[in-house]
Specification:
Aconitase, domain 4, seven-stranded mixed β-sheet, 8 helices, single chain, globular, 31% helix, alpha/beta
């Protein structure tokens, strides 16, 4: 896995739940573009207008807790977010990020790394080298490597494509 992510930090705290990521009142539509316009609205009403393609959400512990809604991952990706860097993830959010077709990277780092980042910092995340570089502060830190199966699912473009390729089926168009 040699993917590279570069973007500006949007920083939040611990326990950012799926209702903060995409409020329930918007779940009447499954339209990623619409969802992206309302991403993080429950926590930061100006978020969607401030994101530039490739930006990164940085948060503390238990990011994506709450419901199992896949809409949260779709909303962040449609808003322009390429990765979420956090001290830990709620398991269901992590799996939705990996298994879905969104290619939103759930990147785990130590809490001290999160504590040393601020909104506006420029990050470069190198999945191949398992490191995150804070270009603003001139710091490099390790990221928790993705397990082998998780890498394979991400590289395939999600769980459905991974399973189709594994079974020898044609990839969906």
């Amino acid at each position: 896995m040699a993917d590279m992510v570069r973007g500006r930090v949007h920083k939040y705290g611990d326990n950012v739940d799926t209702d903060a990521i995409i409020p329930a009142k918007y779940l009447t539509r499954w339209d990623p573009e619409f969802l992206g316009q309302h991403a993080m609205e429950g926590l930061d009403p100006g978020f969607a207008k401030s994101v530039k393609p490739g930006d990164v959400v940085v948060a503390g512990r238990n990011f994506g807790c709450g419901s199992s809604r896949e809409h949260a991952v779709a909303a962040l990706k449609a808003a322009g977010i390429s990765a979420v860097v956090a001290a830990s993830f709620a398991r269901i959010f992590y799996r939705n990020a990996v298994n879905g077709p969104y290619r939103l990277y759930p990147v785990e780092v130590e809490q001290r790394v999160v504590d040393g980042m601020e909104s506006g910092d420029e990050l470069e995340i190198d999945m191949g080298r398992n490191e995150v570089r804070n270009m603003t502060r001139g710091e490099t830190h390790p990221i928790k490597p993705f397990p082998s199966l998780v890498k394979q699912v991400i590289e395939a473009g999600g769980l459905t494509k991974y399973n189709l390729a594994r079974r020898g089926a044609a990839k969906p168009g």
